[in-house]
């Protein structure tokens, strides 16, 4: 699953001249689906969307999440996020989920979002010609990709498995894991610590 997340002051979706979804301050997200996406994928992506700290606190630092500010969420399906433009001039879309699978995934995504306690959740309609209007605040735009996260989790798991095998650890023994989340995020050690990143590393190992 891929998502393009934008922090907005307002956003709306219109179909055939009728506005079907509208929010104020919050997040507008375009979602593209893979045929291999599962409920776990949906949960991971929604957790990211509602907990990413991209809203300013009283000091002007991006330190608050959508839930913290009681913001609103607009979800829009967009199969073109899996467009492949590497060859020729006409993008191919074969890597995305088939329409019937993507539609079911999108319905699940919307239902799960509505159950998360977000102030207001609105969404577009799958397989329609939608006109999306928004005011990007910042601008703040982020790309999320569950496949990249899965690959990083597998890397953490394989590294831990290699350590366990090399050390000859057995069931019941303890492996203490320490890592620099700052360095994982591409910063200098101790300068950008992230509990969220640490959790993802642990989840991958465990």
The portion of residues forming beta strands comes to 25-35%
Radius of gyration: 19 Å
What is the total tally of β strands? 8
| Individual helix count | 5
The CA-CA distance between the termini, in Å, is 22 Å
Looking at the structure, what is the overall shape? globular
Overall mean pLDDT score? 88
Order of helices and strands: EEEHEEEHEEHHH
The description of the largest β-sheet is:
6 strands, mixed
Helix % is 25-40%
Q: Residue ranges: pLDDT <50 for 5 or more in a row?
A: none
Structural class: alpha/beta
In short:
With about 210 residues, the protein is α/β, with parallel strands linked by helices. It contains 5 helices and 8 strands; from the N terminus they run βββαβββαββααα. It is globular, with a radius of gyration of 19 Å.
Folded structure, characterized:
This protein has 206 residues and is an alpha/beta fold. Helix content is 32%, strand content 28%. Helix 1 (39-51) crosses helix 2. The chain is globular, with a radius of gyration of 19 Å. The chain starts with a strand and ends with a helix. The mean pLDDT is 88.
Write the layout of secondary structure elements.
Blueprint: E1 2-15, E2 18-23, E3 26-32, H1 39-51, E4 55-56, E5 62-64, E6 72-77, H2 99-114, E7 120-123, E8 130-145, H3 146-167, H4 181-184, H5 195-205
Parallel strand pairs: 3-6, 6-7
Antiparallel strand pairs: 1-2, 1-3, 1-8, 4-5
Name the features.
single chain, 206 residues, alpha/beta, six-stranded mixed beta sheet, two-stranded antiparallel sheet, 5 helices, globular
